[in-house]
Amino acid sequence: MRIHRLSPEELASLEQVAATGNRDAQLDLADCLLVGHGYEKNPERAFEIYNTIYYNGVSASTENNHYDRVMDGLIYCYNNGVGVDRDEDKASRLSAERHNSWDALDEK
User: Fold this and answer.
1) Per residue in 30-79, pLDDT tens?
2) What Cα–Cα distance (Å) separates residue 74 from each residue in 15, 23, 26, 30, 91?
3) CA–CA distance, 14 with 32 (Å, rounded to integer)
4) Domains in the chain with CATH codes
5) DSSP-assigned letter for residue 60
6) Quick count: other Cβ atoms within 10 Å of Cβ 49?
């Protein structure tokens, strides 16, 4: 989904669909909140969405790109102190986890 220049109706629809638990919509919403396209920037809420999805169990073995998007979002937030205190160690651990997850899939 494009996250740039969404109409107010598209934004309202995205919020509604995200509230139903639709992971694609949740990630689109987090991306919008992180960069401020169509919404007032809210990096804390974007981080919360990424973090919630991560802790609810997203893995590299799924058939979509949720894992990459969640990990990209979390690593970016921790590396840059966006929506959360800067924690380069946490960002490095997440990056290593991501790398190891993909390596494990390649071995199967």
Assistant:
1) 998 888 776 778 999 999 999 999 988 876 665 567 888 899 999 999 99
2) 21, 16, 14, 11, 7
3) 10
4) 8-107 (1.25.40.10)
5) T
6) 22
